[in-house]
Amino acid sequence: MKTFLITTILFIYTNLLFAQHNTFKTASAWVDGVLYSISYSNSDTVVEVKAKRRIVSRLHEFGIWEMKFIDFNKDGYKDILIQYVSNTPNDNNLYLYNKHRHNFIEVNNFRNFAYAAGLGSNNLYYSYERAGCGDLNWNSYLFKIVNFQAIPIGFISGLGCNGDEKMGIFIFKINRTKEKLIREYPIDKIDKYKSYKWGFIKQYWKTNYRKFL
The organism sits in which domain of life (predicted)? Predict the structure, then answer.
């Protein structure tokens, strides 16, 4: 009897937990003079984007936490940014608005760049990701978006763990699949910035992005 009661309680709790995380959500925005809308839950595998009750895009996604309209590339048109239920911090995907086809197209490779942020109106973006040792090791990519493809052009590797063979900040220029080391800094350079390593990353890319074009 006791086993039955425990099993029943666990079953009810699991279903309630799933129901909480499987909340039905909506998002909408005016884009290019047209009202676009999305209805979704994290159990969906295909999400339909509608305009005037007509399906304009089908997004093949799963494990969605949140979807929102945001002008990510600062072209004057709102895009769709997706955040996933994931163990990876800031696991996002991006669909850019195509003003010629009046729909939304996925940016390939975008999920490889966590915490992506823009550098302004130059179509360049940078990321941040943990790389181990309690976040003492970290990476940041500089990338561009061309023809709905996220392409890395620069890379910063921060190694601040005492167990590393060589501690420091190492900056690489990326040409397709080749990485070339162009600059090194001592790891304590990040201590000079108000926002620590995040301040260094933002300032470095903002000041030096032309070197990677």
Answer: Bacteria
